[in-house]
TrEMBL record, chain A:
<dbReference type="InterPro" id="IPR003448">
    <property type="entry name" value="Mopterin_biosynth_MoaE"/>
</dbReference>
<dbReference type="InterPro" id="IPR036563">
    <property type="entry name" value="MoaE_sf"/>
</dbReference>
<protein>
    <submittedName>
        <fullName>Molybdopterin synthase catalytic subunit</fullName>
    </submittedName>
</protein>
<feature type="compositionally biased region" description="Basic and acidic residues">
    <location>
        <begin position="26"/>
        <end position="47"/>
    </location>
</feature>
<dbReference type="Pfam" id="PF02391">
    <property type="entry name" value="MoaE"/>
</dbReference>
<feature type="compositionally biased region" description="Polar residues">
    <location>
        <begin position="50"/>
        <end position="61"/>
    </location>
</feature>
<dbReference type="GO" id="GO:0006777">
    <property type="term" value="P:Mo-molybdopterin cofactor biosynthetic process"/>
</dbReference>
<feature type="region of interest" description="Disordered">
    <location>
        <begin position="26"/>
        <end position="61"/>
    </location>
</feature>
UniProtKB/TrEMBL annotation, chain B:
<dbReference type="Pfam" id="PF02597">
    <property type="entry name" value="ThiS"/>
</dbReference>
<dbReference type="InterPro" id="IPR012675">
    <property type="entry name" value="Beta-grasp_dom_sf"/>
</dbReference>
<protein>
    <submittedName>
        <fullName>Molybdopterin synthase sulfur carrier subunit</fullName>
    </submittedName>
</protein>
<dbReference type="InterPro" id="IPR052045">
    <property type="entry name" value="Sulfur_Carrier/Prot_Modifier"/>
</dbReference>
<dbReference type="InterPro" id="IPR016155">
    <property type="entry name" value="Mopterin_synth/thiamin_S_b"/>
</dbReference>
<dbReference type="InterPro" id="IPR010038">
    <property type="entry name" value="MoaD_arc-typ"/>
</dbReference>
<dbReference type="InterPro" id="IPR003749">
    <property type="entry name" value="ThiS/MoaD-like"/>
</dbReference>
<dbReference type="InterPro" id="IPR054834">
    <property type="entry name" value="SAMP1_3"/>
</dbReference>
Amino acid sequence: MQPISILGPGADDLAGTLAERLEGRVAVVRRDESPDESNERGHHDGDTAGDTTLSLSSDGSWTGRGTVDGFDALLDRLAPDHDYLVAVGLARLRVPAVLLGDDADPDETPGDVLARGAGPEDVDVDDLLAALVGAEPWVTRELLVDRVERSADAERSGAIATFTGRVRARDAPDDERTTHLAFEKYEGVARERMDAIAAELTDREGVFEVAFHHRTGVIEAGEDIVFVVVLAGHRAEAFRAVEDGIDRLKDEVPIFKKETTESEEFWLHQRS
Amino acid sequence: MEWKLFADLAEIAGDRVVAVDTDPGETVGDALGDLLEAHPGLRDRVLDDGEVADHINVLRNGSNVHHDDGMETRLEAGDELALFPPVSGG
């Protein structure tokens, strides 16, 4: 799923225009500014663009298809069965943004700013759609599990094994806290290497599907970084393929990690 | 030719993409020489005793030049060159 934040005055209008132009299943999420009218917020049918329309209230709960906490949970929950999420007035790291308003400050925006304008009429929607093609999608472990489960060999599979790499705040209780990691990727070549490793692992007897995803950009303590998901006949080959998959990714795929702790910043390859 | 640089190498050069005047028919080594001349700060980081240090990766079109003729590999028009330190994903 590709998320995009639209921020500032007129964001709702631009979100509607954009949602109509996006192909596939589109969710539109709005920040709800009227928590007093909790019975009124929620699903809007018919009159707005988008297949799923949700309101996220200031206390972090949202209505429409259940209640979970916050924007992150909403992104994770919608990712498996939506192609796009258009978020009005909501922003976070690694979600690209459109910034409206004359006094808006891109340095204060957590995601990459793809377009700016005083109002919605200043944003060229064609250019925005083109910029969105190159943005990083929101991929979750569940999305990858759903993907491998759709395998033609799913009937012969009795095991799914997954590995999730996450940002460890500290290795030992008295370690200095890691606040975030920043990853950069040799685009194209990283994907080719991951595809080649996946192809080699699926050549093994009883390994049917292998899916890799490594996030890039700034990832904060406690957040997920990388997923390896394997669909196999039995648990032994599933575990082995997951372990070999993550080991080979760490050895072979051109991805680079910079760590920021409470007091310093350094590239990981200079410490190992 | 263009070099793509990553991690601290891009920070030292001040750019992720550096164009050099190396022509097709010349070698990867020639292109690296042109890069180090344009960004002398990279020299100590990339070279060890005059040779490319073991831990530095040199790629041509996504493949390590060790698989071809190393630094003697001939360049073709449109080649993409990349230089990076040990990978550290995950």
